[in-house]
Amino acid sequence: MPYTLGKLFCCLAFLLCSLSAVAQKKFTLSGTIRDAATGETLIGASVIMQAAGGRVGTSTNAYGFYSLTGAEGTYNVTISYISYQPIIKSVTLNKNTLLNIELKAGSELQEVVVRAGDRKNENVRSPQMGVEQIDMKLLDNIPVLFGEKDVLKTIQLLPGVKSGGEGNTGFFVRGGASDQNLILLDEATVYNSSHLLGFFSTFNADAIKNADLYKGGMPAQYGGRLSSVLDVKMDDGNNKNFAMQGGLGLIASRLKVEGPLIKDKSSFMISARRTYIDFLLKASPDTAIKGNTLNFYDLNAKFNYKFNDKNTVYLSGYFGQDNIGIKDLFANNWGNTTGTLRWNHVFNSRLFSNTSLIYNKYSYIIELLDDVNNFKVTSLIRDFNLKQDFQYFSNKHTLRFGLQATHHRIAPSDISTSTTSSFNNLSIENRYGVETSAYLSDEYVVNQHLSLLYGLRASWFALLGPGTFSTYNAAGDVTSFATYGSGRIAKNYFNLEPRFSASYLFNDENSVKASYNRNTQNIHILSNTGSSSPTDQYVMSSNNIRPEIADQVALGYFKNIKDNTFEFSGEVYYKWMQNQIEYKNAARLIANASVESQLLFGTGRAYGLELFAKKRVGKLNGWLSYTLSRTERKFTGLNNGNYFPARQDRTHDVALVGIYKLSKRWTLSANYIYSTGNAVTYPAGKYQLGGITTYYYTERNANRLPYTSRLDLSATLEGKDTGKRFHSSWSFGLYNALNRKNPYSVDFRNVPSDPTRTEAVQTSLFGIIPSVTWNFKF
To answer: Which superfamily does CATH assign the domain made up of 131-777 to?
Structure first.
């Protein structure tokens, strides 16, 4: 099946090349848009070709490439990008023409926006729904915990995205679980996107060019997760001049170096970050603290080489590691490694190709260091991925099609002990799988009012040997088992995933959009936490676990006023989810060779309303977002088979963000969030068993944590303009400025003075936390 799909797409690519060659009296303008100062490609830059007979426009793709087709004639071509000086050129189109442009940054940033591009009314015109394009410059002014700018915490301020917990980088999108988000870094999957148990993300903002978040209506080129895609791309590196930037904070520092290897032809970028909490622990006079370990570090690197206008090669990688330990007692280390080798090739003015070879691995080690009860647990998930994408541009159509194949290996748990340990060695079989997919999509501008984006993704998953595979009944007992040799298929699934969205423009400032999309997921995380945990267990679809499936419909209204100064949008959505996974009461997930026997399977549904208002220009910028939503799940073995709220269910979420340019040097920022409490299960009663109080529970997630309310403040002071290349700034912040004790968890215990009574005890992690960071660039 994958071989047949491959032949089909090769024939389609050949056909498209042939069609472009026979086009008559229509010619194509194409090229790449870059930053004049650094040579970085600009993603989402606007290119508009206008003549007396009308106009056509487009935006550069994820690699800075654009293509426009028009009848023979002379055009005024306008190239623009937010905070850059636009360029207008007169172009006579009497043949296919290459026009590469370098844009210069504006003298002073006058607006702060979420979207990276600047095509007029793009949010109204585009048929794409539920997408947010994050401008990395925005992160400089968003107040966050410890002053560490963070893309994952910034997206939590957008409608439809819920935080995984106080100060946490984990997030839920439109009712989906945390493992249903596909997080990509230069096309490589990042399985655990958090540092220090979720308080920092793996993404060092200095190394990131841009990030796109798809909450619904996902384009057909993305697959493998149900709820969202966060597509993060690293900086390519400055191919004009050597540059350095970084920052010194209270608990972490970072440094980025970039420059040309061959000017205008090849460049590099290396960025590193490290916390130094462990250095502070070593200096502590408290012997109980001194010698403990608490740190993380990460490294981003990227190199590229431009052979000519048609061929460029990129090599990028990421390495991150966390280390937490209590001396002579316990150690926990975990980290991600990714690598991407990418080749961009321009076949002709209409056909663009990207070929990627991708590697990613997530692993963790847990050690108990006691002489008697010592053990070491290791686990990993590793992927090799080959991906081929094409993009074909015609007058009214933009076609995307491609193939992808991923080989998965999961090592669930390997426990090793010493000869004196009271624990036994244990090795659980590795699991292997292959995921292949093919997709085709078309963005079709039907007329000046109607645009369509439709496509189909075909995915095939195969669970492979070697290994012994058991089948369990509802009680968790083995009903059959079979052993398969290396490379043999133990179980496979095939799914078709249709995608469709449309926009109808009433005029340049008003539109309605609708979408439907289906997604499937074959890699599942077994976790009881609200974000990525170091000990998350990964499992593949199998003879017991079927692929998760989600169908989502959405309808939205979009409006801009005062020449795009203000943007408004409202979206409603409904999502059906099949083959959802829950855990039996008292389930044992870690180091369990028969973990699939501990699982329950059911359905889910999520629905909601998202409202968004944003001011884009002027001294005062910012936005207001509101989400009204419900997320429910149903399992035969839980809650009498009735729907119950999912753990991430919250009724109301509000976020208000304001950024004020007080003067040329001072920028003031604030954000306020309010959310109702997550669903939790409180005990319905208690009893004594052997003198120990034991609680019993009835309905799952029938209770609520208290609401969360938090105000964060920040101020940025730019250094004096001395006319030299060196520039610095100071960022000051107050996290939780009102010092409200927001709930992290609620536990129950006997009242010490009267054991017959029970009291609820709330745990709160953070009060008011000040931060200061010195940033520099030269």
So the answer is: TonB-dependent receptor, beta-barrel domain (2.40.170.20)
